[in-house]
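Subject line: Sequence and fold of a protein, written as structure tokens
Enclosed: The protein record, placed directly beneath this head.
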Amino acid sequence: MVVVLDTVNGPGKPRHPEKAHRADQPVARKPAWIRVKAPVSKGYADTHAIVRGNNLHTVCEEAGCPNIGECWEKKHATFMIMGDTCTRACAFCNVKTGLPGPLDPDEPAHVAAATAKLGLAHVVVTSVDRDDLSDGGARHFAEVIGALRAACPATTIEVLTPDFLRKDGALEVVVAARPDVFNHNLETVPSRYLTVRPGARYFHSIRLLQRVKEIDPAMFTKSGIMVGLGEERNEVLQVMDDLRSAGVDFLTIGQYLQPTRKHHAVEKFVTPDEFKAYESIAYAKGFLMVAASPLTRSSHHAGDDFAKLRAAREGRR
């Protein structure tokens, strides 16, 4: 059963009023291979307390990630900066849409403090889209990276950024702050953008990733897509080629899961064997690292994957 309720901010509140006019989409029954553990452990409770104590948002909660129980039990949280309200209304996403509030100048320090308390060796920082800001929030990303470097010098940093569409110079600000991994997700194949990701432009996102490598060839780049949104297999393979042409090192592929009846329907549940085939093809196309499975998400096992990514690069030298 999928309902349109805001489970983060309290029961009974509609989470997606901007989607209220949309026709209800059918909700497919999940197959046996998509099962996750309920978040009930002490580690989960401890992580929750640290996040709340620092007045932070996480994509784990806001996007309804199915892996939250597993990750928070290990005290692995992905921080979502610049608020909990996005300026876009993508058909797949469970994050709220609306006019965001002002940036919190204390947020970089809070992210650094929470990272230290959680003891993270690798931290992932993402954000909502902030089309209302002149730089799309690039300077705020840089300030968070700077605070993390000062407070947790041994922690490696991965950023998962928006596309900074029509924000000249924004990308350069983030790259200059020197995160260890620059991630920007394509989310889906180009033919699905109009219905799935209407506020974005596929080739702009490809160019964004390519530009990171032009500015800093040593920086790891990463991108991910969801499958099960109506894409064809040959389209997924073309995305792989486009990403390799942009020099992207790390590809993630996961199953799209429908947050509510007002979101895009699941067109297909891709089998584990199909994911394995995608993984093999992606490695053959030259990616240093590939994570492909039904429950793969951008920040799932990010720390372990970063260690493998570095080792893979060293192995090719």
About this structure: The chain has eleven helices and ten strands.
